[in-house]
Design a protein that fits this description.
- It is a single chain.
- The protein contains 27 helices and 13 strands.
- It is α+β, with helices and mostly antiparallel strands.
- The chain has a six-stranded mixed barrel with strand order 2-3-4-7-9-8.
- α6 crosses α8 (229-236), α6 packs across α9 (239-251) and α12 crosses α13 (298-304).
- The longest helix has 21 residues, at 198-218.
């Protein structure tokens, strides 16, 4: 049985966690179904990473550091109790219990309710581990605005501790006198021991009301607001008139003659109006609309509906508005409307199987028999290999799964029991957050797959080589190939093809043992550094040596002179002079940056400045040959640097005479 005011679980997706909502109304639709008007509460996975960081930084001290101090003073006894320390796993699970309240309403079918939960406002005196010990227990301390994407505190901070306690002065002895100036401590507004009697005070108050009624008759704006005499008399009988009359008696020393002359000075009678008279009818309607939306949150009422009013004016108008007939009438209408609505609804327990269920109940524990899933996979949360029931979890290509208990935890609390980086990727699938721009590496390696061709496919590559163009397709792997057309053409050409056996080119390939040895020796000899990881091939490891330079007819002395000159001989635009010059009609290929999220491993190859300079010395044919056969060494023909002009050496001094000839 679910009632108005209960916190419940709603299921809007079979794979996502439950939504946590608070039932505000239960309405019956025209077709007989029941809809629930609910208040939305959001989890940490539903808000952005920036707001999560803001929630951590602006969280209260017990949630941030888990070590606050509570001070309880009982007489002369002072006790300090600290929050118990928590493990990393408990801190991780505690974030799953934190919610963010909002003022967003939505209507959901009551048949989607999956159970009750308990949500409370976080108190600084609460023990945080108590939320982990109780099932279906959550807390909140901040309010989330889905439109403005902001987080605000729901209430003021509770100041707990010895530094917030009032300092009580010592009690004075009977013989000591109080040296404090009483006028600075308080202001006297009424003296009950005055010389006037109660009938005289009542008569003076009647005179003050009469003066107020006459003042409203003389005021033009008041005549429009209170056109009748009864309305003016009722406005003059409000508390503001009585307070002004009693204050006038106090200031004039309770002398009735002086007080009368103060009520009616030479300029005319004094008019005193409160907030109920100052506000117009349109402003009162705006206030009622804001009160219906925000409740008694006067800060939001003033900010969104009445920014030209002060906060004190809004609060005073609220308490005066509660004394009017308008408030009583609205209260009766709400009570009658609430009586006509449903108070509770019965929803039977949901027993249908979840679509993410992998194996049926009663199957052999520890084995996953679903199609497309590998057997023997463990739970992503608790890493167990045996469970009566398994559920698919996460991206479909990851083939992750959860056991029965961890699946229930995921649906209720929106996370895994143990912290993993893969959980962050699944949290990015929340409909309330945008995962655009996120490039996170998956902690779990991608599944290895092998493409195995059939005999007909291998034959079609040879028979339809002119249509397939394998070299062109290898250079453009993103371009699609019409496989059906190739197969159809192959079936036509196959009877006409030669009956002899096709000759296969035998490519010598090293054995796996030699490759493993080579890789092991390379990893031992070369230290693991940042430049080695990010650079594709360092400049020292480029496949060009002095021996290669000699074989390519580059003189050793010229090469050393070119290296000593400070680099390659390039033109002003960064290209070589003659060799490898790009044609004018050749299209410029734009380099694409590698996305870390799309890379199969966290290693990214970045070309260095020297590598890019060496590429410019390769012709287009050499670049294609290197792309098709990356295992072969690249031989670069370096241009001959220009020979420097001989500079004549002028001796600084000589002993022979200088002869000038005409």
């Amino acid at each position: 049985m679910y009632r108005v005011g209960d916190y419940v679980y709603f299921e809007n997706s079979s794979s996502n966690p439950y939504l946590i909502r608070r039932i505000e109304e239960l309405n019956k639709t025209a077709n007989g179904n029941v809809e629930a008007k609910v208040v939305c509460l959001f989890r940490r996975r539903d808000i952005s990473a920036n707001l999560n960081t803001l929630a951590d930084s602006n969280a209260s001290e017990p949630l941030a550091s888990h070590s606050y101090v509570c001070v309880c003073i009982l007489g002369d006894f002072e006790e300090e109790s600290k929050q118990p320390s928590m493990l990393e796993q408990q801190k991780h699970q505690l974030k799953h219990r934190e919610l963010f309240l909002s003022r967003q309403f939505e209507s959901l079918p009551a048949t989607h309710i999956r159970g009750k939960c308990n949500v409370t406002l976080l108190n600084e005196t609460d023990v945080l581990t108590g939320y982990l010990e109780r099932e279906d227990c959550f807390f909140y301390s901040l309010v989330f605005d889905p439109v403005q994407k902001t987080l605000l505190a729901d209430q003021g901070e509770i100041r707990v501790g010895s530094k917030y306690q009032a300092e009580i002065p010592d009690k004075l002895d009977e013989v000591d006198s109080d040296s404090r100036v009483q006028e600075k401590l308080e202001t006297k507004v009424w003296d009950p021991n005055n010389q006037l009697k109660d009938p005289q005070i009542d008569q003076f108050l009647v005179v003050a009301r009469a003066v107020g009624t006459f003042a409203r008759a003389l005021d033009c704006s008041s005549s429009i607001r209170q056109p009748s005499l009864h309305m003016s008399a009722a406005a003059a009988s409000r508390d503001i008139t009585l307070f002004h009359a009693m204050d006038t008696l106090q200031k004039n020393g309770y002398d009735l003659a002086k007080a009368m002359s103060t009520l009616v000075p030479q300029g005319g009678p004094v008019l005193c109006r409160d907030e109920m008279e100052e506000w117009s009818a349109s402003e009162a309607m705006l206030f009622e609309e804001a009160l219906e939306k925000y409740g008694k949150d006067f800060n939001d009422i003033r900010q969104d509906f009445l920014p030209w009013k002060s906060l004190a004016s809004v609060v005073q108008f609220y308490y005066m508005w509660k004394t009017t007939d308008r408030y009583i009438q609205q209260k009766r209408l709400k009570a009658a409307e609430a009586d006509s609505k449903l108070k509770q609804v019965y929803i039977p327990t949901y027993t249908k199987p979840n679509p993410n269920q992998i194996s049926a109940p009663g199957s052999k524990p520890g084995m996953n028999g679903a199609t497309g899933y590998q057997k023997g996979l463990s739970c992503e949360s608790c890493h167990t290999a045996q469970s009566q029931q398994w559920y698919a979890w996460g991206p479909p290509n990851m083939q992750c799964r959860l056991c029965a208990s961890c699946w229930i935890y995921w649906k209720k609390y929106g996370g895994l029991k143990t912290p993993t980086q893969l959980e962050g990727e699944v949290q990015g699938m929340s409909p309330f957050t945008s995962s655009a721009g996120r490039a996170k590496l998956l902690a779990k390696n991608r599944q290895t797959f092998i493409l195995q061709t059939t005999k007909l496919t291998r034959i079609a590559r040879r028979v339809c080589q002119d249509i397939l163009q394998s070299h062109r397709a290898a250079r453009r792997p993103y371009a699609s190939i019409n496989a059906n057309a190739v197969k159809a053409e192959c079936m036509i050409r196959l009877p006409k093809a030669a009956k002899g056996a096709m000759k296969n080119r035998i490519i010598p390939r090293p054995s796996l043992i030699n490759i493993v040895k080579e890789l092991g020796m390379a990893s031992v000899n070369q230290p693991r550094s940042t430049s080695a990881l990010l650079g594709k091939r360092p400049f020292d490891n480029v496949s060009i040596t002095y021996k290669d330079a000699v074989e390519n007819s580059v003189h050793r002395s010229k090469l050393s002179h070119w290296l000593q000159a400070g680099g390659h001989s390039l033109s002003t635009n960064g290209r070589p002079f003659a060799l490898g010059m790009r044609a004018a009609t050749q299209s410029v290929i734009k380099r694409q940056k590698v996305s870390q999220g799309d890379a199969p491993n966290p290693v990214v190859f970045v070309a260095t400045k020297d590598t890019r300079a060496l590429r410019k010395h390769l012709t287009q044919a050499e670049m294609r040959r290197a792309a098709r056969k990356p295992h072969l060494p690249v031989r670069i023909k370096l241009p001959v640097p220009p020979r420097p002009l001989p500079v004549p050496i002028i001796p600084s001094s000589t002993s022979e005479p200088i002869v000038l000839e005409d």
